[in-house]
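Hi there, hope your week has been kind to you so far. Would you mind checking whether the tokens look sensible for this chain? I owe you a coffee for this, so here goes:
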Amino acid sequence: MDFRVTSVSQSGNGISKFGLSDLFVSGSYNTGGGGLITAGVKIPLSKSDAREGDVPLPMDYQASLGTYDLILGYGRSFGKFQVVLGYQQPLSDNKNAFFPSLYPGNPVLFAIQSTNSYRRAGDVLLRVSYPFRASDNVMLTASVLPIYHLANDKYTDAFGAEKEITGSQGLTLNMNLFADIMLSATSSVQVSFGMPFVTRDARPDGLTRKFVAGAEYRVRF
């Protein structure tokens, strides 16, 4: 069983936000022969309703997608390579209420897609990783991560009509590097870096970044 709490700090265009993101709860079953089945849920710790003053912010500044998600995965090792196939399906809408018309004096936010009552489609992913040991306590892992967004996302316009967001379906291709540092027999730190090389035409979920860096502290019980 795995329990994980995430948070995020975001800054740009004169706006800075920090908040708790999601709680991930998952369980894995070793099928033997190097196979591992995983099933879990993502529970939002934020409703994606963060505001600047009294005005709703776009998804780019939200700590979470604000949805309950089902997560399924299957992983297997092939020699030194590790391959993971995953599926993530949102089970709810979020509470975002962003309209670009709320920011007539801000050319950056005025150009962002509305995500009022945002409905995000599901994703499938395939991660191919190659770990190698840098020292007795440090493991480095390089990976490629294609993610295919299965359908166009949707939002509700100012007149209450649900509309598709053209171009939000499609492929994103990411490259990642992880460094796992063992601190003791029961604790470790993982430092990660990733950047996209291929992106969808529209990414209203606000997940597009030039690069992403993260740190994670792990404790085994």
The domain at 2-219 is CATH 2.40.160 (Porin).
